[in-house]
Amino acid sequence: MRTVATLFAFAASALALQVTQPTNATGWSTSGSNTVAWNAVSTDPSNFTVVLVNMNEFPNYSQILDALVVTSLDKQSVNPPSSGWPTGHGFQINLVADNEHLSTILAQSEQFSFIAPSGSSSGVSSTPASSASGATMTVPASSQ
Ligand SMILES: *[C@@H]1O[C@H](CO)[C@@H](O)[C@H](O)[C@H]1NC(C)=O
Ligand SMILES: *[C@@H]1O[C@H](CO)[C@@H](O)[C@H](O)[C@H]1NC(C)=O
Ligand SMILES: *[C@@H]1O[C@H](CO)[C@@H](O)[C@H](O)[C@H]1NC(C)=O
Questions:
Q1: What's the pTM?
Q2: N or C: fewer beta carbons within 10 Å in the chain?
Q3: Residue with the nearest Cα to atom 13 of ligand 2?
């Protein structure tokens, strides 16, 4: 007797944390809270910190949105920073280990834009996809 069960044995551990929301296609709203969603496997850390970055801006934008997010929740609603949501293109969500290790990136979203919710300018222009791999983020000292 043959079995194909072994085919599935290796698949389970192959993928780690992956950001499924926001995507380049959906973007985020400049109004109200936005949702971060992810897929995880049992070997991922039990919590992480959500950081909004834009490596295409000078200086690079970096803002912690939520810390100690519980991995098993699969998604989390995040509120705007005290200064409000930024505008523009080329933003990414980084899931990082914790507040102290913002450059330890566990997963990264696609580049996306902030989009105004109602009828204002829909100027979604193209953003060059610059590779940010291996970059070390410099974050202005904040309260954390
Ligand atoms: C957060 O995750 C880290 C790494 O998995 C773990 O050591 C720590 O205990 C967790 N903290 C909380 C509050 O769950
Ligand atoms: C912004 O990020 C890019 C890409 O990682 C990097 O080359 C550049 O030096 C950064 N600029 C600043 C001001 O941090
Ligand atoms: C994101 O979408 C815009 C169009 O909305 C496109 O021009 C851009 O190349 C996309 N970026 C990535 C990284 O896919």
A1: 0.74
A2: N
A3: 59
Q: Which residues, other chains included, contact 12 with Cβ-Cβ below 8 Å and sequence gap of 6+? A: 41
Whether 134 maps to a domain, the answer reads no
| Token couple for 82 | 């005290």
Domain assignment present for 99 = yes
For the chain, how big is the Rg over CA atoms in Å?
17
Pocket test for ligand 1, best of 46, 70, 71 (most atoms within 8 A of CB): 46
Q: What is the pLDDT of residues 5-58, one digit of tens each?
A: 444 444 444 468 999 999 999 999 999 999 999 999 999 999 999 999 999 998
User: In a mutational test of the pocket of ligand 2, which residue from 58, 60, 94 has the highest number of ligand atoms less than 8 Å from its CB?
Assistant: 60
C-alpha of residue 129 to centroid of ligand 1, in Å: 33
Q: 111 and 92 in contact (C-beta within 8 Å)? A: yes
Tell me the residue range of the domain where 108 lies: 2-116
State the amino acid at position 45 in one-letter form.
P
Ligand 3 center to residue 129 CA distance, Å?
7
